[in-house]
Structures are given as structure tokens and as C-alpha cells.
Amino acid sequence: MTDIAKPFSQMFRATFGDIAWQHYEDSLAQPRVRGLRINPLKVTNNALKLQHPVPWNKTGFIIDLQDRIGNDPLHAAGVVYLQEPTAMAPVAVLAPKPGERILDLCAAPGGKTTQIGAAMNNQGFLLANEINRSRAQALVQNVERMGLTHTTIATMAPDKLTADYASFFDAILVDAPCSAEGLFRREPEARAMWNIERVETLAKQQLAILESAYTMLKERGRIVYSTCTFNPIENECVVAKFLTSHKDLSLQRLSLESSDQGLSAAQIIDASNHSEWLYDLLHDYEPALQNADTSYCARFFPYKSKGEGHFIALIERKGSYSTESLRTKRTDAKRHLAQRDDRTLLAAYTSFAKDTLTPTAIKKIQESHHFLTQNGVLFAVPKDTIPMPAYLRPGIPLLHLFNKQVTPEHALAMTLQKKDVLSTCRLPYHDQKILDYLAGHPIPCDNRNGWCLVFMDDVPLGWGKVSQGILKNHYPKGLRRQYEFAR
Fold first, then answer.
1. Domain 333-479 CATH assignment equals 3.30.450.40
2. Nearest 5°: phi and psi at 241?
3. pLDDT tier, 388 (very low <50, low <70, confident <90, very high otherwise)
4. Dihedrals phi, psi of 417, to nearest 5 degrees
């Protein structure tokens, strides 16, 4: 460890013991653990031959460090998402259900968002929020790659969402920004950024985010608070102070394989007697700790689990269950179609859909979504989305017009199945034409002229336009590269 992290090692020893510290130091020299999730929204006949399941997530698997599946067409198609194994645990604790309204409040780069959306089976409403717009771009790409249809992406400060989404969500994930002590093995730069002042600042920020989450939570709803750090200030202390502020909240006991239970108040106070900076910061939290059994939480260590360090708390709100939000702020879809550009795009989509999609697919989108134009793109917006001007991605991008030419969006392609499309070009896994298509090349296709959806087995890859036996490539230029079959 670097000199700047000496206070960290002092805290770790004082809190978890000298033996734990030795195990932790040894783990820093060990290779990191890689994992992936299979996307249940993408049906594929390809045998992935994964042998090492993640205990807390039935779709998660541990993979070899040398595995090149990130460069495989299966990754491009959204069949798999590369994710560190313990990072899958918070969503497993959240236990999303189809039909719920769920908020991922600190969502980028999208691993937990896409895990939530898959568990919801594209039923209900998922709002993924990321205040950092540059990080949110990765969130957009991952949501689209994984084929989520009922997801809206915002880039707002959490407290700016509260007025419109008050008492709205059944479940909220707060995977909070933190000092990232649990990632020191995987991200050495996190070690260099660590300092006591940052821990103190982040704890205050975490509490503010939780307060916003509380405002947006329904009665009998649940919050999962998680970090990828070890120190009790950002973990048990933040949770205890949050609970003390709201008497209708309670901690639920967690028992996750390979995890340790959270620290009790007595353990934290005892640790502070052997760590000066922990002692200095604890005075703001000690009264709250006496009123909450923070041992109900869970903590992962990299030397005990297949993954990095994580902390998780499950918090439930008491009260009578209400099926409707206290907010009824809605606008009719016609409000979105008042401008001429909207009508033009809607007419273009209607024509495109009639020629390209099946009647069942068209009806399904109409029943669950409104239409909205934003920045020259027609979106299908989940009906539970509150109309606001600041969404980065209000729903599924459907199409745009350029020089009076209709171009369907790649995001729409990634949400479709073979039964949804009138013209498909189906290529078996290992077909060289798949690699050619993903690299941006035209490929032969005997379909009728017009728009066609390219499939790898039963999984969509993207659009093409057939003319005289050749499929002109419409795979997005920003995604084109050389892939290779890893399986």
C-alpha cells in the first residue's frame, strides 16, 4: 500500500483485525475475479458452457481471466454482460419483480440497471439516473445493448427528481459513490485517490442521496444501499443515521453466501479507539448507531468471496401499501404530438412499422408506451414516465429522419425478436458473415428489398437494408469493430 493509504490500513486493522488485514494484503497480489451475467431477455441456442455459478445470482457466472467473451458477438448482441461477481449481489437483495416501479439512482455504467431490467422481464417501469452525463453515455449503450424496453434514463441530481416522483417507486437501488476501498485490487488508481477528507465528504453525500430516495419511496417499499468500500463511516454509520431520521424505516437481516455480517455499534466504537481519524468522524454518528442493529447488513471481502469488496443494506419502509403513486402528474400522449415534426416522425414510423414489424409487435409498443420526439428522434416512452424536459433517453429510440430518409434506430432492433419482424436475415453462431456485419461490411441476403433485421441464431444484431441480394449495413459506426468467436 502507498503512504497515502496508511490511515486506511490503520482503520482496517482496528476494525477487522490484524489477521484480516494480512489476508486482505495477500488478496491484493492475487488476480482479480471476472464474472458475467447471462441476459434472460435474449434467447439463444448457443451453449455458453459456463461452469462456475455465482451463489447470489442465478444468471451470474465466474469466468477465466483469459476469457475473451467481451470481444465475442454474444457480447455485442447483449446475450452477456461482463460484471464483477459481488457487484451482482445488491440487485439480488433488491429482488426486482415484473410490473414494479423501480429507481436505480446512481446507475452508470449500467451493470446493476441491466440486471434490474432483466429481472423485471421488461414489465413495469425502471428509471435509471446518473448525474454525470459522460458516464451516462455508457449507461445508454448498455441499456440499449441488453434490450431493455421499459427503461428511462435521466441525468439529474437526485433531489431534482423528488418533486415529480414523490412516493412513486416500489424499490430503489442506491449504489452510492464511495471511496472505493473494495476496489483497490482491481483499480490501483482508487488507492491514490483515497484520503480521510474524501471519506467524510462522501458520507455526507451518501446521506443526501438516501434522503432523496426516501422521498421517492412508496410505503412498504424497499431501498438497497450499497457501496464498494469497507470503512464503517460510509457504511454502517450512514445507514444508522438515515434510519434515525425516519422512524418508519427498518433494517432487514441479510445472509449472503461468502459475506460477513455488518458491524455492531460496539464493534465500531471499539475500532474508533484504535484509529484516530475514525474516532474523529464517529462523533456525528455514534448516537444513531445505538438505535440501529447494523449487524443486519452484509460485507464482502475479496479474500473470502469470489469478487471484490462490497457492503449492502436492505431497508424497508412501513405503512399501508398503495398501488398508485401520490403523484398523478400525467399528460396525454397527444401533448407530445402537437408539433409538426412530431406528426411527421409519427407518420414515418407508422409507415415503417407497417412494412417492417408484425401487427402484434406494433400493438405491444402502442399499449405500453407513448410517443415523444426529442432532438429529432421519435421515442417510445414507458407510460409511467413522468413528463420532464431533462431525460437523456426518455424511452426506446424508434427512428429518425435525415434528408427525408427514414432510418430505424439500433436501440429498437435490440428490443425485437424474430416473431416481431417481417423480414429477417438469420445467421448461425460461427458464421463469418456475423463478423463481417459487426465490422460494418455489407453481406449477401436473399430477402425481399427493404429493411431487414439481422439475427445471430435467435438474437438480434442490428438493421440492414436489402437491395438486389445485398444487405447494406446499418450497424452503428461507433460500435463497429473486429469481433471474434470465443466459444
1. no
2. -65, -35
3. confident
4. -115, 170
Are 62 and 33 in contact by the 8 Å Cβ rule? The answer is yes
At 320 the pLDDT is 63
Measured between alpha carbons, how far is 241 from 268 in angstroms, rounded to an integer?
Answer: 14
> Is 228 designated active site?
yes
Contacts of 324 (CB under 8 A, 6+ apart): none
- Residue 62's pLDDT is 96
Is residue 405 within 8 A of residue 452, CB to CB? The reply is no
Residue 355 CA to residue 362 CA, distance in Å, equals: 11
Q: How far apart are CA 313 and CA 315, in angstroms?
A: 6
DSSP string, 426-468: EE-TT-HHHHHHHTT--EE--SPSEEEEEEETTEEEEEEEEET
- Provide the pLDDT for residue 70: 95
Find the helix or strand (DSSP H, E) in which 80 lies: strand 80-82
42-67 residue pLDDT tens: 977 666 888 899 999 999 999 999 99
Residue whose C-alpha cell is 464474472: 35
Give the DSSP H/E element, type plus range, for residue 226. strand 217-227
Band of residue 336 on the pLDDT scale cut at 50, 70, 90: very low
- Cα distances (angstroms) measured from residue 364 to each of 122, 331, 406: 12, 20, 22
CB distance 197 to 128 below 8 Å: no
> What's phi and psi for 458, nearest 5 deg?
-110, 15
Give CATH for domain 3-30+83-317: 3.40.50.150
For the whole prediction, is pTM greater than 0.85? yes
Better pLDDT: 192 or 321: 192
pLDDT exceeds 50 at position 281: yes
Domain boundaries, the chain: 3-30+83-317, 333-479
Give residue 440's pLDDT: 98
Average pLDDT over residues 127-148: 97
Amino acid residing at 424: T
Residue of 106, 178, 228, 445 marked active site: 228
Q: How far apart are CA 400 and CA 345, in angstroms?
A: 7
